[in-house]
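Exam revision sheet. Question 4 asks you to relate a sequence to its structure. Input first:
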Amino acid sequence: MRQMKARIFTVPQFYHVIRLAMRSMPVMRKAEKSGLISKEFITRIMLVVTEVNGCAVCNYYHAKHALESGMSEEEITSMVNLEEGAAAEEEAVALLFAQHYADTFGNYEAEVWDRVLSRYGEGTAAAILAAIRVIMFGNINGIAFIALMNRLKGKGAAGRRIGSDLIQSLGIIFLIPAALIQNLFSRP
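Answer key, structure tokens:
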């Protein structure tokens, strides 16, 4: 695994991401089962988001999956850097949106989302957004877990707060049920 610069997220940001991910998982699964979006496309979306967020564990997992699905290391590197021509033309808009979403922590511009909608249609666009939200959850959780493991090994975790890392890596036991309950009683 290569070294990645992991972003730092707050506990409130993580909780927000959990709520979105819990709503998004069924959307992503349904779209994948119906053939609206392929596993390989989801993997490429997740690689791009992971590159922005810097989760080494997620990067390793999704890069391994991409290699197993036939992508070369050079293709993966070109794709996560969104080099011109690296992504299939039909996926480029989605991958750029995924990068924009992660860069802005979900505060994407309406015009960018409109472009995704017009390119893919409502169903596929919803699946793309769902995949992004699910990997955001995985990234934040993975980054915090790695930071905790590094602390246990005596390595530093510069700029990180141990309480936030504990909550973001282990507190999901409580945060996921809380988010599910809150999602039940609130509007999307």
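Marking note for examiners. Residues 110-152 form the longest helix (43 residues).
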